[in-house]
Amino acid sequence: MTLPTTGRSWHLVARPQGWPVPEDFALREEPVRPPSAGEILVRNVHLSVDPYMRGRMNDVKSYVPPFRLDQPMDGGAIGEVIASEAEGIAVGDHVFHDLGWREFATLPARYARPVSAEDAPLSAFLGVLGMPGLTAWAGLLETGGLTEGDVVFISGAAGAVGSVAGQIARLKGASRVIGSAGSAEKVARLTEEYGFDAAFNYKDASVGSQLREAAPDGIDLYFDNVGGDHLQAAIHASNVHARIVLCGMIAHYNATEPPPGPNNLMQLIAKRIRMEGLLVIDHEALRPRFVEEVSGWLRSGELHYPETVVNGFENTVDALLGVLRGENTGKMIVTL
């Protein structure tokens, strides 16, 4: 086949102040380099857009470098190999890699991970079998120390991580799983499709009052994707020796002023609560165990993985802004 010589990529052209806007991004045509020894050329098929990408738009030191201005952005992607100069990866293979936000990517083969549509739909390797799934699995079992009989509360429970985390908690023997979400439709899906015992719309009334009603005997494990009032309510509802896993704080990502923090941190002392941050990169060694267990649940039909699919590379920025506004149910995927 004739290899492409150019392809489109998305660039960050301005660092957002508060909420990102389309004008902060530009879609540009760039040369596509053929692979050298040990490299592959990939035509991207599915792209991942995730809440953490908002933090990378700020020029601050963090666990992952910020996006560079006027350079291609990056993120998780699944693509088809269209040229290979690397042993073990052939033309036609599908791989996971981190050079998303572009139509074509040339990269060393060692930075790609082969995936197969025979094991699961390819998009699943960006969601339930990818970073969000491992985040949920490791966050609950390793960081959170989930034990049978725990009462578990998950905020942002209809998102890519939260929807999987709630189902894993149920499959691992939690006595009660509670979720919060931002619409009546999402709340219904949590209880009717994903097996949550209770769920509430955080826009209907205060999080604290709704959590007290859903968990009258308190909670033992809180998986935090939101921060803010959700974290304060969870601390108040926590039982003695509860665990809090800090996975994300989407309520804070677009704030132009520091949002107020929980004012009840003294309860961490009285209740001997353990609160710990979670980064999935610390748990990469667990991937084989994670894939084995979660793949089994997928095959048996015990675990569902909701996806919101946006078609068209030109709509990638709209998909990301949709994630930040909470418009997705489950994993947001851009299909080229």
In short:
Helices cover 25% and strands 26% of the residues. With 336 residues, it is α/β, with parallel strands linked by helices.
Give the name of the CATH architecture of the largest domain.
Alpha-Beta Complex
Give the CATH H-level superfamily of the largest domain: Medium-chain alcohol dehydrogenases, catalytic domain
The structural domain count equals 2
Distance between the termini: 20 Å
Radius of gyration: 20 Å
List the helices and strands and how they pair.
Elements: E1 6-12, E2 25-31, E3 39-48, H1 52-55, E4 77-84, E5 94-97, E6 104-108, E7 113-115, H2 131-143, E8 151-154, H3 160-171, E9 176-181, H4 184-192, E10 198-201, H5 207-214, E11 219-224, H6 228-237, E12 238-246, H7 266-270, E13 274-277, H8 287-300, E14 307-311, H9 316-324, E15 331-335
Parallel strand pairs: 8-9, 8-11, 9-10, 11-12, 12-13, 14-15
Antiparallel strand pairs: 1-2, 3-4, 3-6, 3-15, 4-5, 5-7
Polypeptide structure, described:
The model has no long low-confidence stretch (mean pLDDT 95). Helix 6 (228-237) links the parallel strand 11 and strand 12 (238-246). 25% of the residues lie in helices and 26% in strands. The chain has helices spanning 52-55, 131-143, 160-171, 184-192, 207-214, 228-237, 266-270, 287-300, 316-324; strands spanning 6-12, 25-31, 39-48, 77-84, 94-97, 104-108, 113-115, 151-154, 176-181, 198-201, 219-224, 238-246, 274-277, 307-311, 331-335. The chain has two domains: 6-127 and 306-335, Quinone Oxidoreductase, Chain A, domain 1; 131-281, NAD(P)-binding Rossmann-like Domain (Rossmann fold). The protein is of the alpha/beta class. It is built from nine helices and 15 strands. Strands 3, 4, 5, 6, 7, 14 and 15 form a seven-stranded mixed beta sheet that branches. Strands 10-9-8-11-12-13 form a six-stranded parallel beta sheet, sandwiched between helices.
